[in-house]
UniProtKB/TrEMBL annotation:
GO terms for biological process: proteolysis. SUPFAM superfamilies: FtsH protease domain-like. Gene3D superfamilies: Peptidase M41. One of its GO terms (molecular function) is ATP binding. It comes from Aureococcus anophagefferens (Harmful bloom alga). One of its GO terms (cellular component) is chloroplast thylakoid membrane. Pfam families: Peptidase_M41. This is Peptidase M41 domain-containing protein. Residues 40-146 form the Peptidase M41 domain.
C-alpha cells in the first residue's frame, strides 16, 4: 500500500467503496489549498447521519464525508450493511425518513431554503413510497393498491415521512449542528467518531443501538 502497510483496514475498504461509487476525491490546488467543505452540504449529510442513529428501522451510519468527488458528489453518508431478507412496514417507513432527513436538515437550518442537492434523495423516496403502497401492499389500501389508483396513498406516505423528518431534525438541533460542524472541520468521519459525537451531546439513540454499544 502507498503508506507501506501490507494489511488493509476497514477504513481502506470504505474509501475504496467511495472511490468506485462516487469517483476519486478532488485533488488539492497546485498550491496545496482546497476550499473548505460547504456548510450546507455538511448540514445535509448531518441530517442523514442523525436519522440513522435515532431511527430504529435503519442501520447506523458508518462513514460520512463532505469531500467533493470527481464523479460530482459533494457529500455521502454510508450505512452499515443490511442483510435482512425481509423488512417490515415500520422499517421501510424509517428508510423514507432517512432519505428525507438531509433535505429536512437544510430546510431547518436555512429557514426553509433548500437546494437542488437532494434531488436524488427525492427520486429514491418516491420510488420507495410507491413500493410500500403498490408492491408490498402496506398502506390502508392493502393488496388492492396493486390494481387501482394508489397515488393518494403514495402521497400520504411521503407526507408522513416528511413530517417525521422535519420533527427529527428540529428535536435534535444541537446534535445536527455538532455533526455538521465536525464534518466541516474534518471532512470525513467514521462510525466511531459519529457515535462519539452522539454520546457527547447526549442525543437519544434507538434502544437496540444503545444495548449493542454497551455490549461492545
Amino acid at each position: 500500500m502507498a503508506d507501506g502497510r501490507y494489511v488493509a483496514t476497514r477504513a481502506d475498504y470504505l474509501r475504496a467503496v467511495e472511490d468506485v461509487l462516487l469517483g476519486k476525491p478532488l485533488e488539492d490546488d497546485l498550491d496545496g489549498a482546497r476550499e473548505s467543505p460547504d456548510w450546507r452540504v455538511a448540514v445535509h449529510e448531518a441530517g442523514h447521519v442523525l436519522a440513522s442513529f435515532v431511527l430504529e428501522g435503519v442501520d447506523d451510519a458508518i462513514r460520512a464525508s463532505v469531500r467533493p468527488r470527481a464523479g460530482g458528489s459533494l457529500g455521502v453518508t454510508l450505512l452499515g450493511a443490511d442483510d435482512a431478507k425481509s423488512v417490515t412496514r415500520a422499517q421501510l417507513r424509517d428508510r423514507l425518513v432517512l432519505l428525507l432527513a438531509g433535505r429536512a436538515a437544510e430546510s431547518h437550518v436555512f429557514r426553509g431554503d433548500v437546494s437542488s442537492g437532494p434531488s436524488d434523495d427525492l427520486m429514491k423516496t418516491a420510488e420507495l413510497a410507491k413500493a410500500i403502497v403498490v408492491n408490498f401492499g402496506m398502506s390502508d389500501l392493502g393488496a388492492a393498491a396493486a390494481v387501482g389508483d394508489a397515488d393518494d396513498a403514495v402521497r400520504a406516505e411521503l407526507r408522513r415521512a416528511e413530517d417525521a423528518a422535519r420533527d427529527l431534525v428540529r428535536d435534535h438541533d444541537r446534535t445536527l449542528r455538532s455533526v455538521a460542524r465536525a464534518l466541516v472541520k474534518r471532512e470525513t468521519l467514521d462510525g466511531a467518531a459519529l457515535g462519539a459525537l452522539f454520546a457527547e451531546d447526549g442525543a437519544p439513540r434507538a434502544p437496540d443501538r444503545v444495548a449493542s454499544a454497551a455490549a461492545g
